[in-house]
């Protein structure tokens, strides 16, 4: 029986994915690296330091920076990202998400957040939806980030339910793998090809298609 829905944040609840892209793109440009949106897909759902590492490898300069340099670069990216985030308002929630959260609450389905972002609590505050979430997993307390299942497993544990009783919702390939390996039902929001390859159990084109009745029907099939 479905008891909880665990959400990813960036790219599922709001479009911070675009802000991450812009901030990384600018940072990379400053050190002579260019990358496109296709490469950016690989950065979705993974941590800040892992994203930086991938960009440096992509630019062929991974060995040219010390650990202290890398922390400095990651801080610059985050400062720029935080600046972009100041413009975020409740109206920036993706269409259908608020209605879906209300539907979950009305039906006593628990709600959790499994985001790799250390900025997640601040983003939920800006969107004024913190109160819906019974648990927000702190990515700092997780040994392995997405695609490892740890973050979704931790969310279920904190909610006091088993993975089989959960639906996870993600927009990234790494995130879908994390949900599947946690033993949960994976809803992928985004392009069909990408989500099929990732192994999503149910694919939605966008968040307006999130409806509890439909999800329960698919979950029980
Ligand atoms: P931060 P999600 C992830 O969030 C993003 O998709 C990913 O691009 C980002 O690097 C990561 O959060 C860390 O974010 O720098 O704010 O700690 O999709 O798991 O909600
Ligand atoms: Mg995401």
Describe what this molecule looks like in 3D.
This protein is of the alpha/beta class and 221 residues long. It folds into two domains: 4-14 and 93-220, HAD superfamily/HAD-like (Rossmann fold, 3-Layer(aba) Sandwich); 17-85, Putative phosphatase, domain 2 (DNA polymerase, domain 1), CATH 1.10.150.240. Helix content is 46%, strand content 10%. Strands 3-2-1-4-5-6 form a six-stranded parallel sheet, with helices on both faces. Helix 6 (120-127) links the parallel strand 2 and strand 3 (135-136). The longest helix has 19 residues, at 67-85. Magnesium ion binds next to loops.
Q: Short description, anyone?
A:
The chain has helices at 16-30, 37-40, 48-58, 67-85, 97-106, 120-127, 150-159, 173-181, 192-198, 212-220, and strands at residues 4-7, 110-113, 135-136, 166-170, 185-189, 202-204.
Largest sheet: 6 strands, parallel
Counted up, domains total 2
Helix content: 40-55%
Order the strands across the largest sheet as they lie in space.
3-2-1-4-5-6
Quaternary organization: single chain
Mean pLDDT: 96
As a percent range, the share of strand residues is 5-15%
The counted number of beta strands is 6
Shape: globular
Structural class by sheet pairing and helices:
alpha/beta
The name of the CATH superfamily of the largest domain reads HAD superfamily/HAD-like
Cα end-to-end separation: 11 Å
Q: The CATH topology of the largest domain, please? A: Rossmann fold
Residue windows where pLDDT falls under 50 for at least 5 positions: none
CATH class of the largest domain: Alpha Beta
Return the string of H and E elements.
Answer: EHHHHHEHEHEHEHEH
- Based on CA atoms alone, the radius of gyration comes out at 17 Å
Going by CATH, the architecture of the largest domain would be: 3-Layer(aba) Sandwich
Treating each run of at least 4 consecutive H or I residues as one helix, how many helices? Answer: 10
Give the cofactors and ligands: 1,6-di-O-phosphono-beta-D-glucopyranose, magnesium ion
